[in-house]
Amino acid sequence: MKEVIRVIKAGIYKDNPVFRQILGICSSLAVTNLLTNSFVMGVGLMFVTAFSSFTVSLIRVFTPKHIRMMVQTLIISAYVIMLDIFLKAYFPAMSKALGPYVGLIITNCIIMGRAEAFAQNNKPIISFIDGLMMGVGYTIVLMAVAFVRELLGFGSLFGIQILGDGWVNWTLMIMPPGAFFMIGIVIWVSSRLFPKEDQEKGGAKV
């Protein structure tokens, strides 16, 4: 149970993939202009990371060392294809809105990093939890950034108009520079809330 708690804490804040490891930045910048897009991307990455880590851990003793990276990539690709097909079949509008970024989950360093650093050396269940929590940590950052960007950029949240007609949309917030600005603030705030010493202790425990 203690190990599970450590993994949960690591994924959410102690070793958060975005503001601690600075991974997954491309998708963080690309889809965070709307909360809905960010939520779907986050849930998609949670699914892929959790099940990829579980599968990698499950077959780790049977995977030759010299081809393990290729095997991991194949596993990740399979789950990303499942996710892409699911979105196209049941949520075509969302699939179109996210465009190529769903497919690009394959190249997300968070997934490969957890497969190599954690799942390759731990049991399947704890590896699944680790992957899931890393996805949760990623999603929390995406939602926080998207909350500010959509509210200031469109005056809405989840597509529902919140600010009145008198509100002047901040065009900067829905442009790439707005995403860089917000990610920078998130990283700065997190470094103040969770000092480096806390990060190092967290990494050592996990």
A few lines on this structure:
With 206 residues, the chain is mainly alpha-helical. The chain has helices at 2-14, 25-30, 35-58, 68-90, 92-98, 109-117, 124-154, 176-193, 196-205, and strands at residues 156-157, 160-161.
Written account of the structure:
The C terminus is likely disordered. A two-stranded antiparallel sheet has the order 1-2. It has 206 residues and is an all-alpha fold. 68% of the residues lie in helices and 2% in strands.
Name some characteristics of this structure.
2 strands, 206 residues, 9 helices, mainly alpha, two-stranded antiparallel sheet, 68% helix, disordered C terminus
Strand content: under 5%
Strand order of the largest sheet: 1-2
How many helices does DSSP assign?
Answer: 9
Name the average pLDDT: 85
Are there runs of 5+ residues with pLDDT below 50, and where?
198-206
By secondary-structure content and strand pairing, the structural class works out as mainly alpha
- Our Rg estimate from Cα atoms comes to 18 Å
Write the H/E string, N to C.
HHHHHHHEEHH
Mind describing the biggest β-sheet? 2 strands, antiparallel
Helix content: 55-70%
First CA to last CA: what distance?
13 Å
What best-fitting shape do the alpha-carbon axes yield?
A: globular
Give me the count of strands.
2
